[in-house]
Amino acid sequence: MPIEHVLFDADGVLQELPGGWYSAMEPYLGERAREFLHETWKDELPMLAGQGDYLPVLAATLERYGVRTPVTEVYDAVWKNIVLIEESLEIVRTLRRNGYGVHLGTNQESYRGTHMRTVLGYDELFDVSCYSYDLGVAKPNPEFFTRAAARIGAHPSTILFIDDNPHNITAARTAGLKAEQWTFPQGLPTLHTTFAAHGVDAGPASPFSDVS
């Protein structure tokens, strides 16, 4: 069956955290930034599937690490410090103009997801948004993709998924989607080659050879 829909991951594909997560946390935790983030990411896992409230959990961990800065200030400075990759977003717009359903499939807890939907304008950019906290299951569980396909209203084999994480690619293929790994520093020509291999018309190749 031909590809009729493209499902995009967000972080690493459409957006980035300038300098990376570790660098963003260093002003608050210095050399313990990496240790802290790996702990709080583990704590966050249930919230990615819509179970619980992340901010109180994050606040407790910050306090345990001796950070006195209010949790909302840290959250805004780190978790909401998102830069959109305009070249990637233009691909999304081009695909929609060319008649494809274009959708978002991302792991987020509710606070960051809501920020993306509203402040970043993702609800207007995509036809269907599949946030893990809203679906009730997170990647790389194949059920994420089964539920995403149902929400899109399409047979899984008609959906091409683009993500930077190989585990998520494997899970998507297990659920019957077509899936390819790509991250924005690889450059748009590589993405255009991927689309062409699946018969997807993404328009002319961008003049940008590298967006890193």
UniProtKB/TrEMBL annotation:
Keyword field: Hydrolase
Signal peptide: none
Protein origin, superkingdom: Bacteria
Keyword tRNA processing: no
GO molecular function: hydrolase activity
NCBIfam families documented for this protein: HAD-SF-IA-v3
Record protein name field: Putative hydrolase of the HAD superfamily
